[in-house]
Amino acid sequence: MTTDFTAETVHDLPPADLVLEDRVAGRMYTDPEIFEQEMTKVFESTWVWVAHESELPKAGSFKSTYVGRQPVIVTRDRKGNIHTMVNRCRHRGASLCEQRSGHANGFTCPYHAWSYGLDGQLRGIPYPEGYEGVMDKSGLGLKKLRTESYGGMVFATNALDIEPLEDFLGDVKLWIDRFMAQGGGYPIKVIGTHQFKFKGNWKIQLENTTDGYHFPIVHRSWMASVDAETAEMMSFMTDPTAVTHDLGNGHSVMQMVPEHSDLETDDGSEPLQPRFDPLVADLRERGVEEAEIRRLVRAVHGTGFNLNLFPNVSMSISFLRVLRPISVNETYVEHVALGPDGPAEIVDPVNRERLRAHEHFQGPFGFGTPDDSEGWDRVQRGAQGAPEMPIMVNRGLGREKPSDQGWPTSHVTDETGMRAAYQQWKQMMSDD
Amino acid sequence: MTETVAVTMPAPVLSVADPRVVRAIELVWREAAVLDAKDYETWQALYSDDAVYVIPIDRDAESFDDILNMVYDDARMRRLRVARMTEGFAIAAVDAATTVRTVSRFVPAAVSDEEVSLRAAQVLVAYKRGSHDLWAGEVDHVIRLGATPEEDRIVRKVVRLVDADDAVPAAGFLL
Questions:
Q1: I want to staple A336 with a disulfide (CB 3.0 to 4.6 A). Which of A9, A295, A320, B111 is the partner?
Q2: Is A308 in the B-facing interface, judged by CB distances under 8 Å?
Q3: Which H or E run includes A25?
Q4: What residues contact residue A93 under an 8 Å CB cut-off, 6+ apart?
């Protein structure tokens, strides 16, 4: 049984004991040793999001990214299979690929020209006679991670023996299906990526995507800059139907605009927002049918929820928010813009609208992100003080009840999603 | 009488000493000072109504409609942005870094009596709470010359950061 942490014990307790039902210790944000343990016990031990399938459109497409701190290359091979490999030559450890994305037949190390196929197999070694009787090149392919996808979301793990991705996602799958419906009848593709960094622990960002409580306060400046309909749509603070569900395994979904949770359900009563009038007119001129226009334009805002997947990706309304831990007090974040993938004459104007909306809030100069980042920097700085004092995640504990589906549920401004993530963290960080 | 010989003159090299270029550079420097002073209302007035202010992610981009940018502001978005930076609700702007920037290495790209296009280097240091962030990039300006220097206006500014496609800090100021 876990007891409360005090000034005397907080520095000595094992990490798992720093998470209680309603609070966590600030030391979880500030202790470099805990961070080191997280890299193996969390990021190398579970499914980590690495790509959206649209980023690997054809054979030879690749993307370089990270799983925790480990650099990896994600590729699509000639058979269409997706692979994730550590971006490190088997010879002397040089990185093989320093391009963010592109198209290649394979990867050749710039140092001694060892070359590898798209599936990571070692293809060639120059002057191989030096290895005669020393080693056999079979089995010297790149170190591979296990790679699985659901709904276009590609995940990889170093833990070869953990449960299949679909089991890890569980009830999340329904919400991924709903999220992808914002293609308005088309599949979803990545249309651009913002990147920024902040001086704080990765868990502060993890919490934020399920923090409805901060929205009207931190984002007052954004709210003041959008049209009345959008501001009204995001006014969920006192809406009792706006709820957060704990979906298990650290995942949660925060429904800010419940009427947009399932975009496929549309009784036609909701008018399209006047700000989209020029887009509607443009699509009409292009000969797009009224029903399709409505489906596409209604989805421009995205879905009505943030789906938070432990530990590194949130499917946030209309985009993906991906976190990458750098050190105990530094985190990189990507804001991946998404849009429908269809005929250019139909989707291009829709995606232009989506790009502008994404720029308005997201990224290092958006009207939302810099204010979030300031809040997170403050948490990191403040959490250095009085380490025995808890970070409170108790909001709504008294009104949390199971939903009809059995998901622990409370109001969207409550901290149900954070409690879910921290219970998963506690379990993964425990030595049991 | 000597015969007239046709001589092909080399295209004149555009000079930063050209009085029209000097006027454009003066406006660019005025803009830099105004931005470091965070005098955003004055900054906004330096732009024409049809101007665009862009910080792209793709450093090579020349058109920005169909790609994601960090900033892609027309007059309406600049107005909203200036309101955000000045109204006191945006915590990033309220506690923004102190900045100092230099704009130099001007290369005139096109010069006429109506318009001057310049490419320059901009190096900005932003200081906040014990850290200095370095923001370096190419900056392109197109300046429309008015009847008097006071009427000169920026019609296009594109800031191409050296690390535009990498993670940069979230900013409470403008480049």
A1: A320
A2: no
A3: strand A23-25
A4: none
Alpha-carbon separation of residue B44 from B47, B80, B156, B172 (angstroms): 6, 11, 12, 16
Q: Answer yes or no: do A153 and A170 share one domain.
A: no
Residue A364 lies in a domain: yes
CATH of the domain at A81: 2.102.10.10
Q: Does domain B19-161 have CATH number 3.10.450.50?
A: yes
- Which residue range is the domain that position A125 belongs to? 48-157
- Confidence (pLDDT) at A228: 85
Complex-level ipTM = 0.95
A133 in the same domain as A213: no
Residue B68 with chain A: CB contacts under 8 Å: 191-194, 337, 355, 358-359, 363
Domain coordinates of chain B in residue numbers? 19-161
**Max intra-chain CA distance, chain A:** 76
Q: Euclidean distance between the first and final Cα of chain B, in Å?
A: 62
A369 touches chain B (CB under 8 A): yes
Quickly count: other Cβ atoms within 10 Å of residue A332's Cβ.
18
| A283 and A229 co-located in one domain | yes
Which tokens belong to A52?
Answer: 């959206």
Domain count, chain A: 2
A373–B contact, CB cutoff 8 A = yes
Q: Find the CB nearest A374 among B66, B77, B172.
A: B172
* A287 and A401 share one domain: yes
Query: The domain that contains A314 carries what CATH number?
Result: 3.90.380.10
- How does pLDDT run along chain B (175 residues), one tens digit per residue? 455 566 666 666 799 999 999 999 999 999 999 999 999 999 999 999 999 999 999 999 999 999 999 999 999 999 999 999 999 999 999 999 999 999 999 999 999 999 999 999 999 999 999 999 999 999 999 999 999 999 999 999 999 999 999 999 999 999 9
Q: Cα–Cα distance between B103 and A365 in angstroms, integer?
A: 21
User: pLDDT digits over A347-381, tens only?
Assistant: 999 999 999 999 999 999 999 999 999 999 999 99
pTM of the model: 0.95
